[in-house]
Amino acid sequence: MKLRTLITRGLMACAVGAVPLYAAFAAAPPPAQAEAKEEQKAIHILFTNVNVFDGFSPELKKGMSVLVENNSIKEVGKNIEKPEGAYVVDGKGRTMTPGLIDMHQHVMLNPPEGTVSYQTRWDEAAGGAFAIHHMNHNILMKGITTVRDIAGDPLDIAKAIDMGHLPGPRVYSSGGAISQTGGHGDWAGRNVPQEILQNHQDVTQLSQNSWSVDGPDAVTRAARMNLRRGAAFIKVMGGGGVASEFDPLDILGLAEDEVARAVEIAKDNGTYVAVHAYHDESYDRHLRLGTRSFEHGFLISEDMVKRMVTKYKKDKDIVWSFQCFMSINSFGSYDTMPAFFTHEQKLKGVAVGKGARNAAKWMNQHGMFIVGGSDMFSPGLVERIKEDLTCNVKAGFTPAQALKHWTGNAGIVLKWSGPKDPYPTYKLGTIAKDAYADILLWDGDPTHNIDLILDESKLHFIMKDGLVYKNTVVDAEHPYFRPAKAPLTRGQYPL
Ligand SMILES: [Zn+2]
After folding, report:
1. Sequence-distant (≥ 6) Cβ neighbours of residue 296 within 8 angstroms
2. How far is the CA of 177 from the centre of ligand 1 (A)?
């Protein structure tokens, strides 16, 4: 082999294996690396005079300073010494909250006509373009710095965001949701020929936003395929849905052995299963088999709520994920339902709206551990995502509780992804030492007046991962407000 070929192959091997190029040739770092070290000097931004909502406590901590170092919070306190060269942002008594976290989002399901049309009118490229538009304009730029994407496949979009190529929130995704044939993940048209369904039984649709699979082995394959692509947890369909065609709300979704297998695969990977389910029968099945995140649940009984609270208080390992706006507002009455729903879908929605008010009341009364997730997708809804928080207050929670569902509690559940956590280094959803620097500044106090979060002119500052995306407070030209590349925090991809 010629020498040049050998060298070229050597270089390629280095690049592929992500081994620093110099490592193979020299023990001492070359000048280029010394320069890089110089560039990596810590960047400090010191916020002064802010009233802090830490993600948990209903009481604001008044007159605080918060020191950000690179992409994390280094210190929260009354008198923080300014590090040399730090850029000071005078908060002027504004309220600082953690970036909001939407724990039930479907970023891929945003074609103009709604979910089902995704399969027939738009290809995946257009689906991705719609997704990134919404993730930037309606999510990140509204102060939602993290989403748990719970059915859908934005995994490569998430990768591009984390590499700094696209703007958008952090994404914890389940990848495609796992459903049985004819379940809430089966979006193939009624008349799709049997041969096509059988030959493509893993994916009965054109996109990879859900799987229609039957039997524990097919569940295993779908779950492992998702995890292989970077999913942080597993989403399964435990019962019927409102927006899908073949599945009345009363049915059960995955069978016992299929659920057990999904839980087994999740546990093997140190993560958890989240379930779409509405009524006692499916909640019972999933509680017994080890599912941890319970979505919806708007038709469950008070006895089931008590059972969940007892389990939570004993083991601290399950959560109720509340979609307030979609259940109570959108499904409040037949006429407020999305226009693309059929008559039958609207009737299902009315039943959900009624049950949701009761479920929220009981969960609150008995002290369940709760996160908030909007479930709001499609144009017309996605612009209004933060109304899920104001809805929480209409459903009987305090503004501070609503914010806690969307920050502190959410951050705890995101960490249940264990080794599959795409942002494993720091905490999320809190203003505290060793949390990611995901920070908002508001005029006024949202822990007392939740409605102010809907007024974009009151949101003055959006920081995600130490980078500033919105700032009407101080000189935006300062070099510490780094406009582009983030420090690379996502552990999962060979960047
Ligand atoms: Zn959903």
Report:
1. 276, 277, 278, 321, 323, 327, 352
2. 10
Q: From residue 390, how far is each of 70, 101, 294, 430, 490 by CA, in Å?
A: 33, 14, 21, 20, 32
Mean pLDDT of 477-484: 64
Q: In 3-state terms, what secondary structure has residue 171? A: strand
Tell me the CA–centroid distance for residue 441 and ligand 1, in Å: 29
User: Do the beta carbons of residue 114 and residue 197 sit within 8 Å?
Assistant: no
CA of 184 to the centre of ligand 1 (A): 10
pLDDT of residue 244: 73
Say what the pLDDT of residue 39 is: 53
pLDDT at residue 8 greater than cutoff 50: no
Distance 49 CA to ligand 1 centre (A): 39
Distance, CA of 440 to chain centre: 17
CA of 154 to the centre of ligand 1 (A): 15
Compute, in angstroms, the gap from residue 25 CA to the centroid of ligand 1: 52
Q: Ligand 1 center to residue 105 CA distance, Å?
A: 7
AA letter at 463 = M
Q: How far is CA 63 from CA 58, 96, 247, 292, in A?
A: 16, 11, 53, 38
- pLDDT, position 417: 98
pLDDT value of position 292: 98
Name the pLDDT band for 240 (thresholds 50, 70, 90). confident
The residues whose Cβ lies within 5 A of ligand 1, an ion, are: 375
Ligand 1 centroid from CA 296, angstroms: 8
Q: Which pLDDT score, from 0 to 100, does residue 442 have?
A: 98
**Res. 112 pLDDT band, cuts 50 70 90:** confident
Contacts of 342 (CB under 8 A, 6+ apart): none
From 76, 164, 140, select the one nearest 430 (Cα to Cα).
Answer: 76
- Compute the distance between CA of residue 441 and CA of residue 143 in angstroms, rounded to an integer: 9
Average pLDDT over every residue of 134-148: 96
Name which of 236, 326, 327 is nearest 275 in CA terms: 236
The alpha carbon of 494 and the centre of ligand 1 are apart by a number of angstroms equal to 30
pLDDT at 266 exceeding the cut of 70: yes
What is the bridge-based pairing of β-strands 61-69 and 44-52?
antiparallel
Please tell me the distance between residue 104's alpha carbon and the centre of ligand 1 in angstroms. Answer: 6
C-beta atoms surrounding 347 within 10 Å: 14
Which fold is adopted by the domain 100-420?
Answer: TIM Barrel (3.20.20)
Domain parsing of the chain, residue ranges: 100-420
Per-residue pLDDT, 15: 31
